[in-house]
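Escalated from tier 1: erythose-4-phosphate holo job.
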Amino acid sequence: MKFFVDTADVAAIAELNELGMVDGVTTNPSIIMKSGRDILEVTKEICSIVSGPVSAEVVATKAEDMIAEGRKLAEIAENIAVKVPLTWDGLKTCKVLSSEGRMVNVTLCFSANQALLAAKAGATFISPFIGRLDDINLDGMELISDIRQIYDNYDFQTQILAASIRTVNHVRECALVGADVMTAPPSVIKAMANHVLTDKGLEQFMADWAKTGQKIL
Ligand code: E4P
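Tier 2 regenerated the structure:
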């Protein structure tokens, strides 16, 4: 499973990238707002660090304007994936931009039928939002599983990019049901390393080691 980082925090991206944990990056208008930076400038900086797909989202709502914004965003770097919302205009934009050979990430997906439409429109990635479905007591993981089955039934090449990941359990379950990619904030990726038994075991090893009076260096 590929790991994308869901942030525009350049320092956090660089830190995870050094460990080989970053296969790509996703941003959205809220993430850009939180960064406090200019979208073109910060996206360019991210693309200079990460060689995998970097999603940059359009903000227009009419297809014609979305296409123009998408083309402008795609000029930032070769690894830009233009992110479009799953609306009818977004699907039109997806078809046009993907036909031009650009990567397109169709976002704000909340149903299997929406994912089916995105695949038919030539999306490179479909982004189903797990956490936001869980927030309203629906089953985000069931959606990932349904899309996996549908795409496999018909051999669609669109990659399932599990988004709105809030917990380490979301990551594990996405890997189990076969999401191609997951995108999570740096805090969730780092939390994957935590285990209470690791901490406890290390504490015991350190205590016993101190009793030996030995040194390795
Ligand atoms: C994905 O591409 C989105 O940027 C993101 O995962 C949304 O997550 P949220 O629901 O936690 O805002």
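The pocket of erythose-4-phosphate is lined by residues 6, 26, 28, 107, 127, 129, 131-132, 163-164, 183 (CB under 6 Å).
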